[in-house]
Structures are given as structure tokens and as C-alpha cells.
Amino acid sequence: MDPPFCAREYLGIKTLTWEKHIEICKAFVTNDRITVRSGHSLGKDFLSGFLSLWFLYSFEPAVVITTGPTERQVNKVIWGEISKYWRNSLYPLYGELLTNEIKIADDWYALGFTAKETNQTIGKFQGLKGKNILVIVTEAQAVEDVIFDQIEGIMTSDNSKLYLAGNPLRTDGYFYRSFSDPTFKKFALSCYDSPNYIAGKEVIPGMVGRKWVVDKEVRWGKDSPLFQARVLGEFPKQSINSLVSISSLEKSLTKTPVKGYKVLAIDPARFGDDSTAFADVTGGKLNSIQEFQGLATPEVEGKAISLIKKCDYDFVVVDEGSMGAGIYDHLQDAIVDINKARKKKGDTLLITEIVPFNFGAAPFDDNFANLGTDAYFWVCDLIEKGDIRLIDHPDLFNQLSSRKYKFNLKGKMILESKADMKGRGLPSPDTADAVVMAFWQSIESDQAEFKTREERKEEDSEYEQSLEVNELTGYPVRREREVFV
């Protein structure tokens, strides 16, 4: 049965109108392997849901397997589409609709499960072979090769079809290689081709529109790897002088982070296009990011003090360039005041230390021109090695992957300036700066030297007893804690 005809006349789907969607559907009649790289919100999951039902009810008996990297992607997105079309079909569809399953007979069914489940049960695909079988993999760029090895093992019948759909964020893996594999029929979907973008209004509900695309032109810049992947639907053309790849950033979402301190880093900005960014990390794990525009200095300090009281950080790192020096001084005083009040109440004292960070300071590694370049290279190297787990934050990914370096007149590596980045149409890397400062302070270069909070509290308590008292302030003279080498 022709897929577009099935959508119209049997399932009552009225949104299959984009010529690119129709072309992909028709390709299933004459091709066994289809791969689609797509920009953001261009209907790849809409097609997955509809094609599942088309195949299931066009061949007798049929097996349809849907999988993806996350529970949300499979349960909520793909099977949300499948359930909706099954219930709203113009004609009653036989079989029983269950959770992530349509059961018609023992050898005739559709089933959905995550790639994570498959990884934990290596034999998950075993026994799923059928005379007619369709395997759909959504967000295929995030699915590891071991899963595709299992999929290949069940694609043995004459009518075996494989549909891959994803964002081209990684330049390695099965999904990436499928675009150079002659057995695959290949498609690319750009946000600029969206009917909603072209018309300047919503033509197809839920599809990406002009407002989102224009926003990403400004926020990410047309030259950035993330723009290439999530807007143009192209694999990023990573510059040889970039610090970290989009592929490594995507992989970091599932890595096991190294141990380290609990740190809040602040990259302050007052007015203009730049943002004040707060990054919260524990060891190699990024917990959260907060960004604010137009935040006055007292508001930055107030926000920081509120977070310090709530979270009891080991360290708070402040970019002391420009307006940051005053914030650093005021937070030092705030810690003293907080502990003075806590001591009167008999409460536990904070051991939080306020640490200044100067991007232009001398580096620890003489190959770099300054501390900022040293820190960026070190943190990006940890990301590449898999020691850091990030959160899915497109702006952060864009800033990290877009920033380049060059060599100065002394032959030392130095980061591209913020002015040069803006000249390329890219935003100021405020969020990336905060994240880099946080990890730089949180992760010890020698993990054997890492001390737990309990060990630090005991060490600090013993140390405080040995300190001289400043005659002017009445408080102990604290030591300077070195940023690790």
C-alpha cells in the first residue's frame, strides 16, 4: 500500500503535506534502508509513528520494532504518535493497543523499548525476527554501535526495512556512517525548508517556524557547529583549531563523572548583550546552569549569597575581571557575616571559600598564553576523555564547540577573544566561561589528593585553631588556598 495513500485514506492524517515528508514515505516502497538527518522539529518522529502503522497493517504478518536512546523519546514521543493515529483511524484497526505495544498475533505485533534497555540485555533483539520486519531508530545519532550490531542480526528476511532518523550532532558511529553507505537512501531536512519558515506562519502544527530559526541565528551564529547540525541538518564541519567537538559534548551526557568538590562559578556581566552565568558542579558533574541578562552587581551578589546559604559549596569561583573584583570582595565579607551569625546560634559554620579567577593571569602550563586558555584546554580535554558529565544545554554546547584558538607571537596558544567571536556572529561565551571555571576548581588533577567534605572540615577546624587573629577585624587570618595544578 502506498504510504501517503494509507495516511490520507485510512488513518485520516491531514498533516502529511510537505513534499519532503511524502518523498521519504514513498522511498519505503523501493528501498530497504532509509536514513534521515534533520534539523530541529522537522517531523522525523511524526513519520516514525505513521510509518509504524503503515508497515504493520500493510504486511501479514509483520513485526515493527521502535527504539531510541531515552524512555521519553520512545514512550512519550514515538508511541504517543502511534497511539494517537491508532485511536483516530478512519477505520477500526484490529489488534490490541497496549503500553508501547500493538498485539495482533504471536508473530504479528509492534513493540517499543529504549536502546538503554537493549544495552543492559544484550539479547533483547533475539527472537524478534519476522517474515516482514521494520526497525525504526529515532535520535539515531545517540545510539551506540553495539545496538546496531543487534539490529543487523534480525534483518535477515527478504522484506526487512530499517529507518534511521536523527540530528547530525556526531561525526562518528553507525548513523554518521550511514550517509556514506550505498545501501541507504539518504535524506537531509533543513529548518530553512520548513513550510512554516517559508510561509512565516504555522502551516503544519508543531513544525519549526521562522521565529525559532532567527533566534538561533542570533544566539548561536550561522558559523557555529550547533547551527550547522540543529538548523541546517548538516554534520558539523569542525574547525581544526576548535577545542572540543559537538560529538564529544553529546557523548558527555551519559558519562560517569570523576569525583571532586562542590563548586559554584560566577561569570558576571552587567548590561548589554552579555549574560551573568552561574554554574553549579560537583566533581565532574554539571548540576545546573542559570543565566541572567541586565543583572546589577548587588543582584548578582544577592543571588550568589542565597545559593551559598542553600547549597554550602566547598568553593565559589568568581571571574574577577571588570566588575567581578568587587563581587569577590563582597562575597568574602558575606561569608564572614554568615558564619558570625551562625556561630551565635550554634549552627554549623560554612567552609565555603571564595576563589578569584583571572582569565588573563599566568598559566600553569607554559604552552598557553594565559590561565583562561589553560583552563579551557584542560576542561575540554576532560570532556573528550569522558571524565565530565554535562547537561543537555544547546547554548553551552554551541559556545564550547565554537570557540577557537590561535598562536600568539611567542608561539603560545591563546583563546579567540570575545570580540573576535562576536565578529564571526557568535555570542559571548559567558556560560562556557562559568562552566570552565567551575570544573577547573572542582576537579583535582591528581584524584588521589581529593579530600571529602568531612576531611576538609576536620582539616579546616584544626587549621583555624592555629591561625593568628587579625587585630583590626578580630577574625582569623585565613590561608590562601591554591587552585590545583
Q: Which key features would you list for this structure?
A:
single chain, 485 residues, alpha/beta, Rossmann fold, Nucleotidyltransferase, domain 5, eight-stranded mixed sheet, five-stranded mixed sheet, 18 helices, 15 strands, 40% helix, elongated, disordered C terminus
Commentary on this structure:
With 485 residues, this protein is α/β, with parallel strands linked by helices. The protein folds into 2 domains: 3-210, Rossmann fold, CATH 3.40.50; 246-466, Nucleotidyltransferase, domain 5 (2-Layer Sandwich), CATH 3.30.420.240. The chain is built from 18 helices and 15 strands. It has helices spanning 3-9, 19-30, 44-58, 71-87, 115-120, 145-154, 173-178, 195-199, 210-219, 225-230, 246-251, 297-311, 324-345, 371-385, 394-402, 418-423, 430-442, 453-466; strands at residues 33-38, 63-68, 96-98, 101-105, 108-114, 132-138, 159-166, 185-189, 262-267, 275-282, 285-293, 315-319, 353-357, 405-407, 413-415. The strands form 3 sheets. Strands 3-4-5-2-6-7-1-8 form an 8-stranded mixed sheet. Strands 11-10-9-12-13 form a 5-stranded mixed sheet, sandwiched between helices. Helix 3 (44-58) packs across helix 4 (71-87). The chain is elongated. The termini are far apart.
- Please give the alpha-carbon distance between the first and last residues: 66 Å
Q: Please give the number of β-strands.
A: 15
- Individual helix count: 18
CATH fold field value of the largest domain: Nucleotidyltransferase, domain 5
Helix content: 40-55%
Structural category:
alpha/beta
Brief rundown of the structure:
The chain is built from 18 helices and 15 strands. With 485 residues, it is of the alpha/beta class.
